[in-house]
Amino acid sequence: MRRLVLALPIVAGATAYANVAANGFVLDDVHVILENPAARRLASPLRLLTPIVTPGGAFYRPLGVGLFAVDHALFGCRPSGYHLLSALLHLVATFLVVALGTRLATRAAGGLGGLIFAVHPVHTEAVTAIANRSEVLATIFLAWALFVHARPGRVGMARTVALNALCFLALLSKESAITLPLALAATSWLVRKDSPLLGAARVAPAVLLYLALRHHALGSLVYDSPLGYFTEESVATRVLTVATLLPRYALLLIFPHRLSADYSAHAIPTVHGLTPLVIAGFAFGVAAAAAVVVARRRAPVVALGLALALIALLPYLHFTTLGSVMAERFLYLPSVGFAIAVGAGGAHAASRLPRPFLAWAGALIIASWFAIRTADRNRDWRDARTLWEATVETTPDSAFAHANLALALLADGEDRRAADELRRAIDLVPEHWLFRLELARLHHSSGRHREELDTLVEGYRGPDTAPQLIDPALAALEEMRSGPVDECR
User: Fold this and answer.
1) Is the model's pLDDT at 449 over the cut of 70?
2) Among 287, 327, 361, 372, which residue's Cβ finds the most Cβ atoms within 10 Å?
3) Other C-beta atoms within 10 Å of 456: how many?
4) How confident is the model at residue 400, as a pLDDT?
5) Are 248 and 326 in contact (CB under 8 A)?
């Protein structure tokens, strides 16, 4: 039985991601891997002092970049190897979720939680998009640290050193691991029954070392993206809009039926007043926090799972500038807490039923649906065209998705369909000059100069402002379309 508990989530996860080897490089894979010389060269430990610079901003994730260099040394420009390694790392994370759930509760709880984690469709963006591997790496080290910390007994020097090492590795993978001290504090409060403050303070050396290295590499401790979603918006607008994200994230975890590659400003507009979704967001946050407090005595592991999910979401609630308002990959780490809560609560409920096998049969049905949904979603991420076709279908009001589908169609030589998609993007966001300029370029290359002129004149806003808009847009578009030439392209 013990072997089955450990094996079933691993086998289910491997089955769900068996088709990723057929996928190519998509989206940020180009900037983070193909156009990043550091990701194609094994280097010295001095890599710890260098950032990653992409169109979305500068990042400090040296462990992930180092692993990409290992990928390149092993697989060259063949994306199948990169994808298989990402899937393998996901199985490692799954194993740690099973181990953590077992240590906190029971084998049944660990197995159920690990099974849900292994096949959850919302993980596809983190696992199948190679550039998002940082989510998986950070989760591995963070879950491992929680597993070490959750062991009963006195925390001696050896365990403290191990916690700091794991914390440091998690932070070098992705900055969202900065939530680990809070996660350790929650574990101390709800499960270990010792000082939360002491639990958080144990990894202070690792956090301070990371912050020093990060500041040296980036010149700042705060991530600064030129794509900031809330630029020039008021604090009230930021708070109200962020409130709407909580029920959206909860729905993705509980019922991941509608998945999309785009949760941008075109898909999620800013909110300037109280709406039903804002009220639902505030109510959800209060209810989740209250559930942690209420459940901490009778169901401490369920309470801890909820607390871990909420804590892991904190970096994505826009306390600082982020390039994306919302993304499915942001749920990879929070879903550890979700899986722990579901595993502990589900196993406990099943044990109290007169026919427990019915509950386990229901869990297997849900897990099977998740696995099928994940395998299907992997096919969406096969290349840029399949991804944006799927995104346009699920998010038809996304101008970003229509424009990116147009670029993919252009690459395949389907100019007419590309023009239709660009017109749709312009209809949705008339003021976006990149869309209009790309359509004008398409008309120009096809010899339709009258349509080219009409496209530009239609968006003209006056002699004083138009050149200021056109010149930077042209430069950005030229850079986006050309890009550096390297051995992988």
Assistant:
1) no
2) 327
3) 18
4) 85
5) yes
Q: What is the per-residue pLDDT across 243-255, written as a single tens digit (0 to 9) for each?
A: 999 999 999 999 9
Tell me the residue type at 185.
A
> What is the DSSP track for 335-376?
HHHHHHHHHHHHHHHHHTSSSHHHHHHHHHHHHHHHHHHHHH
C-alpha–C-alpha distance, residues 340 and 337, integer Å = 5
Put residue 58 in one of left, alpha, beta given phi > 0 → left and psi -120 to 50 → alpha. beta
Q: Give the integer Cα–Cα distance in Å for 212 and 220.
A: 10
**CA separation for the pair 144, 204 (Å, rounded):** 17
Q: Within 10 Å of residue 416's Cβ, how many Cβ atoms?
A: 10
**Rounded (to 5) percent helix, strand, coil in the chain:** 70, 0, 25
- CA dist 89 and 383 (Å) reads 21
- The helix or strand, by DSSP H or E, that contains position 185, with its residue range, turns out to be helix 180-187
List Cα–Cα distances, 447 to 289, 303, 412, 444, in angstroms.
61, 64, 19, 5
Report which DSSP code applies to 276. Answer: H
